[in-house]
Amino acid sequence: MTAFEGAGKVALITGGSNGIGAAVARRLADEGARLVLADVDTEAGEALAAELGAAFVRCDVREPDDSRAAVATAVERFGGLDLAFLNAGVASGFGLGDDFDVAAYRRAMGINLDGVVFGAHAAIPALRARGGGDIIATASMAGLTATPFDPVYGANKAAVVALARALGPAHEPDGIRVNALCPSFADTGIIVPLKAHLEETGFPILDVKDVVDTFMRILDGEGTGEAWFVVPGRESGPFTFRGVPGPR
Asked: Quick check: is 240 in a domain?
């Protein structure tokens, strides 16, 4: 295992204005990386970019052209791209009952799944041009276990896990590693509607620093197509998937 050397590296972070994205941005900046922050929250993103000496681009990850523009910013301003952290995400908060809303469903799937698909599609040529690099997509523990309280969120995060598992070996010959980051309930804005209930029931809330530490461990590693769990009180690592039955 070789420690990640940030000096001279260029990283794109979607959902980079707040939460996990902003925390990772600060860590990568400390490591000497040059950053492009991409988000719809322009005010917070521009402020963080100014703090870190980064570039900011407004990016709605549901739009393929926005992801292409974010990658182009990295190439044009810093000369290339070494790391794409596809992190933008939203909670869904509804199921398929009377509360089902088609527009809200499409928004959640668009941000949480399409955003990773479009981001990876835009990033891969730039990473290949550098001789390889990393894509890390933020999934969730909801992508590894059933989430009856938010089945739509569980569905799009499970799809992100499956995508990373498939893209990893597919792009290994290009020197591009693709992995998924799967935190449980981390202390960010996305859990605000649930936070009081979690605290009342004593469910442990994950420190964002633990998520960032796991992100760095993925970069330091050599694996690809992995889904790294991050839960309170356990050492993080790649989730071990049981093999499916094959044909007889």
From this structure: no
- Kind and range of the H or E element at 181? strand 176-183
pTM over 0.70: yes
Distance CA 108, CA 126 (A): 27
Q: What is the DSSP letter of 90?
A: -
Which among 230, 241, 244 has a CA at the least distance from the CA of 24?
Answer: 230
Domain count, the chain: 1
Residues 6+ apart with CB under 8 A from 110: 61, 62
4: Cα separation from own chain's centroid: 18
CA distances (Å), origin 175, targets 21, 24, 58:
24, 23, 29
SS3 per residue for 26-67: HHHHHCCCEEEEEECCHHHHHHHHHHHCCEEEECCCCCHHHH
**What's the CATH code of the domain at 174?**
3.40.50.720
- H-type alpha helices, 61-220: 64-78, 102-109, 115-129, 151-171, 192-201, 208-220
Tell me whether residue 105 is one of the annotated catalytic residues.
Answer: no
Q: What is the pLDDT of residues 25-72, one digit of tens each?
A: 999 999 999 999 999 999 999 999 999 999 999 999 999 999 999 999
From the list 78, 85, 118, 153, the catalytic residue is: 153
> pLDDT tens for residues 183-192?
987 767 666 5
Strands 133-138 and 227-230: unpaired
Owning domain of residue 60: 10-230
- Residue 218 in domain: yes
